[in-house]
Amino acid sequence: MAALSWKESIGNAQAVQEETVATAKAVADEEEVVDLDAASETDTAAAAASAQPEAVTEEAAAAAEETTATEEPPVQSGPLVDLFGPTLLSLELTGPSTAQLKEHYTTDALQGKKVIGVYFSADWCGPCRQFTPELSSFYEKINSRRGKIDEFEIVWVSRCRDMQSFGQYFTTMPWIALPPQEAMGARGEKLSQMYGVKSIPALVLLDDLGSVITTDARNMIPKDKAGIGFPWRNPISTLYMTVVPRSLRLMLKRELGSIKEKAFGKVKGLLNLRAKGAKA
């Protein structure tokens, strides 16, 4: 093999050095590209991660709004809602010696009921405590009749003096009740005056539109314990209920109510004018 001159050796060394530098630069460039790609992927993942909580938050907000919308009370209307208000209570046993009040919308609680009893009673009243078990037995008997199951409901209007008495006395009843603050307040007084309740116990029977069937059911039950004549409508009322559809009866009831209200307003206005004239 021929020996290389020093110039050739230097030239070869420079070529090798240049080749090494070029290779190192290419590797560095390649590594730089890889690093940029990795950084790009990392940035994308970070952006997705930072955006994810916002998306979850939006979904949670939407779910919360949906839940809130679901919990909004339904719009209720009708003569029974006008009488008893938007909610009624039942008492549910949660243990051998514990119970809790459960709230129901009035339209749901009285849906499908053909006869509604309005029961005025109190724990401090001796005759009430004697009559309530008899009424409970009668209530169960009527609601177990074939073809008329659960068509009779009673709404208790408490005349108790406090919440503790209300709760204890309610445990003896299988029906529903007006909320105690309503029963012991203005609504209870209004119902009492509306049906002319002078003493308790008193039981008023209404039809499914809130029209009075009888205000003397308290005295009818001992006379007709089997409930043969229940709900003790007069023949004309029975014929009216049979012949006239419910929708038409509701329309007539509203019209009559409007006429009564207008007539009452006019009479009240005339009385006020007379009173002012007398003072003058």
TrEMBL record:
What is one cellular component GO term in this UniProt entry? nucleus
SUPFAM superfamilies assigned to the protein according to its UniProt record, in alphabetical order: Thioredoxin-like
GO MF terms held by the record = thioredoxin-disulfide reductase (NADPH) activity
Choose any GO biological process term that the UniProt entry carries and state it: negative regulation of Wnt signaling pathway
Annotated Low complexity bias: 59-72
All copies of the Thioredoxin-like fold domain together span 114-212
Q: Where is this region: Disordered?
A: 59-79
Residues forming coiled coils = none
N-terminal signal peptide: none
Listed InterPro entries: Thioredoxin-like_fold, Thioredoxin-like_sf
The family database entries (Pfam families) matched by this protein are listed as: Thioredoxin_8
User: Per its record, how is this protein called by name?
Assistant: Thioredoxin-like fold domain-containing protein
- UniProt source species: Entomoneis paludosa
